[in-house]
Amino acid sequence: MADSHNKETRSYNMSRIHSKDTKPEVILARTLFARGFRYKKNDTTVYGTPDLTFKRLKLAIFVDGEFWHGKDWEIQKNRLQSNIEYWIPKIERNIKRDNEVNKKLTDEGWTILRFWSKDIENNLLSCVLLIENKVRNLKMNISERISIETFGDKRFRIKIVEPESPREAVITHYMHNKKNRASRIYKKDAVEFAREILAYKYPEEEITLKSAENALQYGIFNLENIPFPSVENPHFEFIDLFAGIGGFRLAFQNLGGKCIYSSEWEKAAQKTYRSNFGEVPFGDITRQIIKDYIPENFDILCGGFPCQAFSIAGYRKGFTDTRGTLFFDIEQIIEKHRPRVVFLENVKNLVSHDKGKTFKIIREILEDKLGYKVFYDVLNSMTHANVPQNRERIFIVAFDPKRVKNYTNFRFPSKIELTKTIRDVLEHDKQEDKYYYSKNHPYYPELEASITKNDTVYQWRRIYVRENKSNVCPTLTANMGAGGHNVPLIKDDFGIRKLTPKECFAFQGFPVDKFILPPIADSKLYMQAGNSVTMPLIEKIGGEILRVL
């Protein structure tokens, strides 16, 4: 390794050496480009100016000349025969700088790959495969995944999302369905929305539709740590209308089904649904734009359609109430998509409302107009699902006889023994003070005189307390957390208190050890529990439906 040049010649020769776009670097860059990778060359905004940069992934690639960067330096420096006083300090400064660059970039969260020029010239494929592997892993394990909570970011919504936009629902539906045929209906809008999110998140980057699609495919949007993820290899597919907090969904997922579409207009309920299933339901099902996202084919339509119009607790206007007319939106969806099964739930008073005329209209639409075969029954959570709540609801199951040949074999589940008591549901530790009645409360004397047992759920009925004699929880209602009547009360070792939202969810059969109650107002959580279906009962009926499919 002799150097015969004088100082001036050496200086001139070094000035002509290219520090970038060397032959090995060009070969590597062109090969990666041909394989579909997009990068930035010699990005001066990144410390050390890497030869190739994947900025979003924070991957920096350097192509180092063996001599200039001191490959095997402890051996090679002893082979220098002339001008040692120049070369040894020069190359050791390069080595020191390389180490400084590595440390600073690593401290900033970058991944660094360094290749010797000869390795690229002699083993190009191995180098390219190493880069491809690293890119793939970084995409799958990117340190800053974008949470679905980003969709609710106020600044982002103001900047990007118009009011009542279905985009949040579109992108989460696409992520849940990207491996099945239902993804086709969501993909175009999901990719566009992903591009907008990424452009907002990384304003310095040029985000194309292709890169946004890649981001969706490689999992940059975080759907991890979901308590109840979608079934990967489903036995059937269903849609979840008037989804509430997901009672139908959880029941049918337990039975091996995959939900490919959900709809729920109430914002707080959407938050609870999203927290547990990682999916934002579509909004108002009366809007055509919302109906248009329903995939063409599915097996079961589920829906606990709004019951206020038929309930004793409501004004019982039925089809004169706009909430009652939502059944006609269900009719439109059934007529267009022809699911094999329709499974609906409502209050038991639907049968007797308006002297039976309302329910007669519903049956005529399902049977005479749509050609389905209808089964219905009023079942109680405490007698049919081993859940200690006195909750009677009507369940309607309708089969398309052309697609379900064995529909005549369908039977609603039989009564079973109630083995669970309220003691199996109630929390036994002291709860937050806000749930207890203070002795200074104006109702406290009446509560103290009437609520005497620790193993009974009572109800505040506007001006008096009623004891539930059946040793179960009385029917949970939507207004129980808003100061209305029917507020369930108990006496525990620490005082007289209301049921907590968690206990109300447990009385609906939800697995509260896993089910997430998001940080929203208790009044909203009480409403959600009161409006929900009893999940284990839905699962039992669902099992009977699947038996004949």
Number of strands: 16
Q: Roughly how many Å is the radius of gyration? A: 33 Å
Strand content: 5-15%
Helix share, percent: 25-40%
Report mean pLDDT, rounded to a whole number: 85
- How does the major sheet shape up? 6 strands, mixed
Enumerate the strands of the largest sheet in spatial order, edge to edge or round the barrel: 8-7-9-10-12-11
Head-to-tail CA distance between termini: 82 Å
Given the helix and strand composition, which structural class is it? alpha/beta
Shape by Cα distribution: elongated
Number of helices: 20
Unreliably modeled segments: 10-18, 311-316
Itemize the secondary structure elements and their pairings.
Layout: H1 7-15, H2 23-34, E1 40-41, E2 52-54, E3 59-64, H3 73-76, H4 84-107, E4 111-116, H5 117-122, H6 124-140, E5 146-147, H7 154-159, H8 167-177, H9 183-201, H10 209-217, E6 221-222, E7 236-241, H11 247-254, E8 257-262, H12 267-277, H13 288-291, E9 300-303, H14 326-337, E10 341-347, H15 357-369, E11 373-380, H16 381-384, E12 392-399, H17 444-450, E13 458-460, E14 465-467, E15 487-492, E16 495-498, H18 501-506, H19 522-531, H20 535-548
Parallel strand pairs: 3-4, 5-6, 7-8, 7-9, 9-10
Antiparallel strand pairs: 1-2, 2-3, 10-12, 11-12, 13-14, 13-15, 15-16
Helix pairs in contact: 8-9, 9-10, 11-20
